[in-house]
Design goal:
Chain B: Its EC number is 1.3.1.83. Chain B: Keywords: Chlorophyll biosynthesis, NADP, Oxidoreductase, Photosynthesis. The complex is a heterodimer of chains A (257) and B (347). In chain A, helix 5 runs antiparallel to helix 6. Chain A is mainly alpha-helical. Chain A is 57% helix and 4% strand. Chain B has 347 residues and is of the alpha+beta class. Among the domains of chain B are: 88 residues, D-Amino Acid Oxidase, subunit A, domain 2 (D-Amino Acid Oxidase, Chain A, domain 2, 2-Layer Sandwich); 67 residues, no CATH class. The radius of gyration of chain B is 23 Å and the shape is globular. Classes of the chains: A mainly alpha (257), B alpha+beta (347). At the A-B interface, helix 1, helix 2, strand 1, helix 4 and helix 5 of A face strand 5, helix 4, helix 5, strand 9 and helix 8 of B. Strand 1 of chain A pairs antiparallel with strand 9 of chain B. The complex binds flavin-adenine dinucleotide. Flavin-adenine dinucleotide sits at the interface of chains B and A.
């Protein structure tokens, strides 16, 4: 666990000094989340606020950070010492996921043997536990010990058995229905040439939507989430079309000039 | 690409020897190259900061008067100047003043935060010809975190649209995920940039057009903007050359709109597909796990690279498409099933 001392800035800092206020928040968050990197900063820098693309966001960001800061009740003086660069990164060992059966980035299937065959249920349990752990305490990725476990090695019947047939059947039934519908839909489009234009990537996208539809709409409340998604999608399209709508209203006149 | 549970896949395996993914290591170098090439082709390059412009009476055919600060080479003090021009192309980035001056409207933007980190040579070796993308709720709720090589250092960063105020936290998480690979590094510069999410409501007005980030041409999902900035610039210039019949006749808005039309027709499907992909796959950790699993598939890689390198959406082979669909459904189902299990687990 090495500690580096703060070193003086070596390059001109590109952000205006205002933006630095925010680093304080970061530190607090570090502490709160007990994450394993610590920032050490030396004082005193000032870069000219460049015309570059950064300025607007900075301002907006800054406002937000300020709001957040007051929420956290930070003191003025705290930020003074922190407003600069020349920072060293320091690694600190965090508690990493440990399980005797997790060996070299993989589940050691030998240890999951029960009556001569692999107990896949236990593998699923173990992996769910690992993912939950990682969600709460994200871990550094490693080149020395890459994760090689791939959930696709768990045979399909292990999942079906676990989730009992009814739900799986429901899913399959829905997927098949959507598949038929899509094939029909795509077919009817072929005549118009739309598919030609967009290629199969378009079909795939439709399929992804269908698939995620199947997965998402399990309960009625999911429909709300989906509606929101749809709204966003419409918004995106509107933005692209906006410039053309303007054209429609004034276009006739323009073309004469 | 590295998933929330740290499964990493190498997405460059299907590239042919003559194909490569270019990484812009120093923007200044690319910019200078383009400027010089323009000058060689006969353009007069002026080093100036655009301040504002006076518009001629709408559609009168009069000239635009632009006001700018002129900078001599190497000097920091600008000199106020003016110039009259026939048409204006705003290629001045996300905070475009040209866009403002034609009331182009705003766009949602993602904030991209990155730190330039000088890492020890031994660590730099790993990033020699590779970039990393991290996905997960920890690094960004709606984008990805990255480590990109930049000449003699790396850029470590992340972006988000929906949770801008928490960007520092995401940055910390990105650093944590890359910890072992950047350990001992020193931050030499911190940058924050806006990245447009969609085009501005108005991209052409009379004889003023916007291109690149000024117009808002960055794709979702991959966050790619350099290609489209260059391409839109070229299309716009070509439209002007054509509309003005090589400079012999005054152009009008309709001429600039041919650029818009061409651009939208050519690339809108690409933008749309990436928007949908982002919505489906960047929303939750299970979806991200499935996404990374999908990216490990050679067929997906081939398709992705074809569309990335040649900017065309190529029809695939139906059997492979079907296999892909089945595998993707499988990945999504598994990841979701595991998520359901996770909610039952107590640590
Ligand atoms: C952190 C980050 C990572 C990215 N990674 C990628 C990537 O991997 N691949 C990719 O394809 N894209 C990437 N992008 C997006 C890409 O950088 C942009 O989309 C692209 O640079 C847009 O080019 P542009 O010429 O439109 O704008 P810019 O590159 O922003 O250029 C605008 C220029 O105009 C100048 N200017 C601004 N205002 C004025 C004024 N008033 N007068 C005169 N000049 C002015 C600026 O100085 C600047 O030189 C990334 C963006 C960010 C922020």
């Amino acid at each position: 666990m090495a500690l580096f001392s703060p070193s003086p800035p070596t390059t001109l800092f590109t952000l205006s000094s205002k933006a630095h206020l925010s680093t304080k928040t970061q530190l607090t968050l570090f502490l709160r989340k007990s994450q394993s990197l610590v920032l050490l900063r030396s004082a005193g820098d000032n870069g000219a606020g460049s015309v570059g693309s950064a300025s607007v966001v900075e301002e907006k960001l800054e406002k937000k950070e300020e709001a957040q800061k007051s929420n956290l009740g930070l003191k003025e003086e705290e930020e003074q010492g922190l407003g600069a660069n020349g920072v060293s990164l320091k690694g600190e060992a965090s508690s990493s996921f440990k399980d005797p059966r997790w060996v070299k980035g993989n589940w050691d299937l030998k240890q999951f043997e029960k009556n001569g065959s692999t107990d896949w249920d236990a593998v699923i349990d173990a992996e769910a536990r690992r993912r939950k752990w990682l969600q709460e305490t994200p871990e550094a990725s490693s080149n020395d010990e890459p994760v090689v476990f791939d959930s696709s090695i768990i045979p399909w019947w292990a999942w079906i058995k676990r989730y009992h047939l009814p739900e799986a059947e429901l899913l399959n039934g829905r997927a098949a229905m959507i598949g038929f519908f899509m094939a029909y839909f795509v077919d009817s489009l072929t005549g118009v040439g739309l598919v030609d234009q967009m290629g199969n990537f378009f079909c795939k996208t439709l399929l992804f939507i269908a698939v995620s539809g199947v997965l998402l709409i399990r309960k009625n409340e999911d429909i709300e989430t989906l509606k929101k998604l749809l709204d966003e999608t419409t918004f995106y399209d509107k933005q692209w079309q906006a410039t053309w709508q303007e054209d429609d209203s004034t276009g006739a006149k323009k073309n004469k000039t | 690409m590295i998933s929330p549970s740290n499964v990493g896949v190498d997405i460059g395996r299907t590239l042919k020897p003559h194909e490569y993914i270019g990484m812009v290591r120093r923007d200044e170098v690319l910019d200078a190259y383009l400027r010089e090439r323009a000058a060689e082709a006969g353009a007069t390059v002026i080093n100036g900061l655009f301040l504002k412009m006076d518009k001629p009476e709408a559609r009168s055919g009069g000239r635009y008067k632009i006001y700018y600060n002129h900078y001599e080479k190497g000097s920091v003090n600008g000199e106020k100047r003016e110039m009259e021009v026939d048409a204006v192309i705003g290629a001045d980035g996300a905070n475009s003043r040209v866009a403002k001056s034609i009331g182009a409207g705003d766009y949602d933007y993602a904030i991209a935060f990155q730190e330039r980190v000088k890492i020890p040579d031994s660590k730099m070796e790993y990033y020699k010809d590779l970039a990393e993308m991290y996905v997960g709720d920890d690094v960004s709720p709606d984008f990805y975190g990255w480590v990109f090589p930049k000449c003699d250092h790396v850029a470590v960063g992340t972006g988000t649209v929906t949770h801008k105020s928490e960007i520092k936290q995401f940055q910390a998480a990105t650093r944590l995920r890359a910890r072992d690979k950047i350990e001992g590094g020193k931050i030499i510069r911190v940058e924050a940039h806006p990245i447009p999410e969609h085009p501005r409501p108005r991209r052409v007005l009379d004889r003023v057009a916007l291109v690149g980030d000024a117009a808002g041409y960055v794709t979702k999902c991959s966050g790619e903007g350099i290609y489209f900035a260059a391409k839109s610039g070229r299309m716009c210039a070509e439209a002007i050359v054509e509309g003005s019949e090589n400079g012999t006749r005054m152009i009008n808005e309709a001429d600039l709109r041919t650029y818009l039309k061409k651009f939208d027709q050519t690339y809108w499907p690409t933008y749309k597909v990436l928007d949908i992909l982002q919505k489906v796959f960047y929303r939750s950790n299970p979806a991200r796990e499935a996404f990374v699993q999908m990216c490990a598939d050679e067929y997906v890689q081939k398709m992705t690279f074809d569309s990335y390198l040649y900017k065309r959406v190529v029809p695939g082979n139906p059997l492979d498409d079907l296999k892909l669909a089945v595998n993707t459904i499988g990945s999504l189902v598994r990841a979701n099933a595991l998520k359901n299990e996770m909610s039952k687990v107590a640590l």
